Each structure stands twice: as C-alpha cells, then as structure tokens.
Amino acid sequence: MNITVNKILELKEWAEARVVAGQKGENRSVTWCNVVDMEKPWKWINPGELIFLSGIGLTDQEGDLCHLLTKMKMLKAGALVVQVGYYIKEIPKRVLLLADECEIPVISIPFEKRIPALTYQICEMLFQKEEELDTLQSLMKELMYLEYDEALDSKLKFYGYNPQSYYIALALEADQNMKAVLEKPIDFPELNTAILKLFHDYFETKNHNYLYLQEDMVLLVLVPLNMVPDYKTKLTHALRQIMKKLQSQYKNTFCVGVSGIFCKPALIKNSCNKAKESLNMLHACKKTNDIRFFEDMGVYSLFFRVNQKEELESILELTLGRLYKYDEEHQTDLLHILDTYLSEDCNILRTSELLYAHRNTIKYKIAKIQEILLCDLKDVNTCFNIRLAYKIKRFLEIE
Length: 399
Hints:
Oligomer: single chain
Radius of gyration: 28 Å
CATH architecture of the largest domain: 2-Layer Sandwich
Number of strands: 10
Helix content: 40-55%
Largest sheet: 5 strands, mixed
Number of domains: 3
Structural class: alpha/beta
Shape: elongated
Strand content: 5-15%
C-alpha cells in the first residue's frame, strides 16, 4: 500500500476537498505535509510533500503560484492544497492550466477548514506506513538469516503472502554508485519506496504488501506472479518499464536478477539467493541496464554452489595457467585471442575481423596457443574444458 494523493482524498476529514486541476497526478506519492504560508513559498518545499497554503504570504498570487508549481514539478512534490475564500478568492485559470500540464493536483479547501485537522490524519497514515515497512523488513530478515520456522507462516499470511500462489524474488541494484551520480547522500528508504510504488503500478497489485529487504546496495523484493504461458515476456516488459522510470528519476541505470518460480515460504531464502546470483552474473559479464533470469544462467549456477573456491581456481590454473604466465612474461594478449576464437566457434575469419587482425596472424597465434597449452583446439572435449575455464575466470572475478 502506498500513501498517494487519491488515498488521502478518501479520508473523512477531506470530504469538502475538491481536486480542481492536475487530476492525472492523483497517484503521486506523499511523504510529508508542509504549510508554506510565507513569502516565496517555493524556497521551503521538499520532494514528496503535500503543500498547504492560504495565500497570506503571496505578493503576486498568479505569478507566485505558477512559480511554486514549477518548483514542485522539479522536486516531485505531492500536491498543492489551497485554502480558498479569504486571501485567495479564486485560483487563477493560468495556475490551473499549468497544474494540468505538470500533472500536479491542485486541491481546493474552504478557508474555514482547519489545516491541523487535515494534516493529523495524513501524518498518522505515514507513521503507520513506516512502521509497516519496518515490520516487513524485519520479517524478511528472519526469513533470510534464521532457520525457517513454520511459526513464520502466520506472519506471512497476515501480510498477504499466499502459499497457494506463485512468486519470484528480484534482486535490484544501481549500476553506478548512487551517491556519486546524484552528488548527494542517497536516501535508500526513499529509493525503496519509489521502487515499491512502481511495482504496485506495473504489476497491478494495489493492495499487496511487498516483502523486501535492503542488503547493502541490493534491494530484494518478493513479487506475486500471474502464471500465464508468456509470464516471462510480461515480467520482462514490466521490469523494463520500471528500470526506465528509475533511470529517468535517479539518473542511473539498474540491473535486476530474477529467481526461479516458487510457492512454499520455506523456499524464500533460497529464491532470494538465486536472484542475487543472477545479479552477480550480470556484474561478472559487465552488463548494465539488464535483466538476468536464474534459469538462463546455465553452468554458472553450479559455480555458486562450490563451497571451496580453491577447487575452481585449481581448474583455471591447470587449464589456462601456462597461457597466463606466457602473456605476463611476453606482454601478449593470447588469453583474449583464445577467448574470442572460442566465442566465435573456432572461426578464424570472424575472429580476425573482431580483433582487427589479418587471418594469417590469428592462425599463427592460435598455433602458438596450442603449443603453449599442449592441446589440440580441434578436439571438442578440449574446447569444452577451455570454455569452462573461461567461465570460471569470469565467475571468480566477481567473488
């Protein structure tokens, strides 16, 4: 559940309120209330706020209100609530047109209506929502870090988890350091709230409480799934739309790891780990603004289950160790050439085109590689083992 403008308008105390412009923005989120009855009110507003004013501090009502709306759009404020009847006799038409253009709701209330009575209910809702989100995070921590206990079933059901339905776990992370991109400290609760709101919008789960957990820079979320034949296509489309919105709002691209499908609450921890593995695989492949499903990881999913990383390092050393050493001693790039050659199904011509080298040069270097590794690259099993070693190499680079 999100605290939005239209949800606030359903409250009993708001029965006399009227949305006179910007109706398309009624689903905007509200994070706090702010009364700005002073000169130049735009100096005192913040993102997500529901702005109240009577007009007492305005020197040029039409111009000041337009300036305020422009600033509200820039800061992504919630809505503008105007007391009409005393200082402001009527909201100017130009202001209403600008509100429609900016999709910022302008709400008219009678001057006699006491603002504290209106803000009290909103603040109460916001505190309840914050408490609820803290509870959901605490529940996810229990699921992730403690042994599963069937006593958790009742808690999950209370927050809307249905063990008869299908779910997937998502692991979402920004591709760049958010603090560096935004040039200011990132408010992760604010970011998480924005992401969860997008999930509500694109997955059409208005009354669903999302179980989520912030782990360092990664947001883990459990999402209910409509099992239809093309669920993967629809899920990918929704995630792409969410990532596009986040990129626009936070000037950053995001990657998403997706677990397999599950029902039983006991599988939540395992599914979240699979989502994180899928996300890590994107990092290993240096992918940005991308989505990876666990089911598409192939052999990489096995590497995450190897308890002794030394075993993987040993395979890598046995298979490619001599080529590593040769490159270091002779300042060559045979490792890269071999990787490209195998990726192109051992096709000399395509490899030479990709590496901008003459085909005879590539033929000579492939022969040199076979000499160093004491192998025959025409042998299928040999190529498989070397391809596997390169996959291990990429995997170890992210560990």
